[in-house]
Amino acid sequence: MDFVEDQILKGILKTSNLTRQKLGMIFAKFFHLEPGPPGKDGGVDGKGEYEGKKIYFQSKLSKKKIGVGFARDFESVFRNNNFDIGLYIAGDGYTKPFIDYIEEYIIKKHGKEVILLTIYDIYTNSEKLKEAFTVLPQLEHITDDIKKEILRL
User: Fold this and answer.
1) Residue-wise over 90-110: b if at least 16 C-beta within 10 A, else e?
2) pTM score
3) In the list 53, 83, 125, 126, which could disulfide-bond 121, CB 3.0-4.6 Å?
């Protein structure tokens, strides 16, 4: 990623909550998921199904790393709605306690899959995003379209 792209993404993370929420809805659409409603969405920014598996999508495009409190919220919604695959997009990434909590209480305890990405992974078509294609092939080839949408914000 070059300097200009980096500055664009940092600028997006400084936008209003409404703008970041709209971007989360754009991500859900590009992931072939049904976007959650605007405003209070009960913790579900998107949902869908792939090969009979229920998918749960959450987007938190924060300037700071996402902490363990958000992991607890994610796990609660995930469990209470019997989702099979979780997809989480963060702005700047995740704290170690967040990752540890997800691994312990969703992946190990329930044997479910969770994909943790950042806006940078999506924009740069990172290796983490490519790994996500093995779980959710419908994510492949989305980055160019998302880049166009990001620039329209």
Assistant:
1) bbbbbbeebbebbeebbeeee
2) 0.88
3) 126
